[in-house]
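Quarterly update from the structural biology core.
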Amino acid sequence: MKKFLFIMLLLALAGAAGISADVRTEPIDVIVALDKSLSMVEEIGAVVEYVNTYIIDQLLIPGDYFLVLAFYGRTEIPVAMRITGDADKQKAKQAVAALAANGRFTDIGNALDVLGAELAKLPEQNRRKHLLLITDGIQEAPPASRYYSRDGKFTHEFLQSTKTIQKQGWKIEILGIGTHAGAGELAENLAAGYTELSEAPTAQEFIEKTRGFLSSVELTEGPRFLPFNSLGRGRLRLGLTSRGHEQAVTLELSGIRLSIEGTAEQDILRRPLRLTVTPGAPLQASLPLRLKPRLPVGDYRGEIRFVFAGETQFTPVVTPADFQVKSLSSSIRLNLRYWLAGAAVLVALLVLLLVLLLARPGKARSRFRLTVEGRKRAPGGKALTILEGKPLFLEESEGSVEIVDKKSPASLARLAAVRGGVRLTVLRSEKFPGLKTLPPNILDQDLTVRLGGKKELTIRLMSSK
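Predicted structure, tokenized:
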């Protein structure tokens, strides 16, 4: 019993710490790029503990390719291996544990170049790739670097390099330590998710901020442009799939930036949108677009970059864009085809409705005469017509019976027109002695009716043409 309670306590503590093993079965490429420059000297211990106890111990599965880049003025590769089991994890942890924040300068651009070169060597280029970049955001490339700038700003060469990465479809997360603006700017340039940590983060804070590191929303269909009309209106269709998420994910799409060589970049999303993607149910979306300014009629090729208001986004964020701008006459012809198709459908529906109306039988009706035994013609014995929906009533009257069109206290039964005859519903059962069952059609059937003073009459509703 004590052993059981001890195990339960350990499980509860693990849950409270937020540590849960990855349940993936599909191997992926996991990359951690961490800043080991001198400015990270106070944070490197927590970074090492986080990578070893969470990324390696909890997230990696056999078959994953694990790459660790440690960058400063140069870029080192302490870990580059395919994980086959616990022995590989131990080797990776030993290499990470040996890292120290002792490098001069911080050249993030060079780290991204090395990353691209390393990944290009892998035989499986189509695997999902998740990049986690940890830095305090202080860009200080050495003078010999192609990314060097005196003011520490990201250079044009660096920005061009990030555009190449944006098109790869990697999921990129930037963890910015402290409030330095450089990490947020880096995330924007890489079109990456960005999370700001405290000035002195613990390993647990790293864990809490990266719960969804290996989860993603991916662009799995499209994007496909529908032609823009002469007013600059169009639509973009795409399909999104959630991977690794246990609950629905909502993305706030704030813009779609269109870039075409020789024209100014413009936002073509007509209005901000919220897209909710549910696990196991891919989302098919049609986004409203607007060209402003409009473009001349023709075929165009460029690229689009999706812009998100929140931390959650889908990948890739940059994709090629091939679309057409139609002329006014083309738009009219296109709309005319839609109108003609709609009109054809409407005519077909009207024809179908007419056929149904013609095939529908009219209301039931029957003609009959009321005959009373012993009399040649009973009161009201003339030929009567009864229509569906307009019942008649059999009524006791002056020692006999008659048919009337309104119910009264003297009514004995209700008569209703049905297909092929008349249905009788008894209102006063004591007036029909010995009647146990009624046929669906009462026409040409004898009925015994008991009147006042126990007088009995035999009546019949005789069919009449």
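Residues 328-359 form the longest helix (32 residues).
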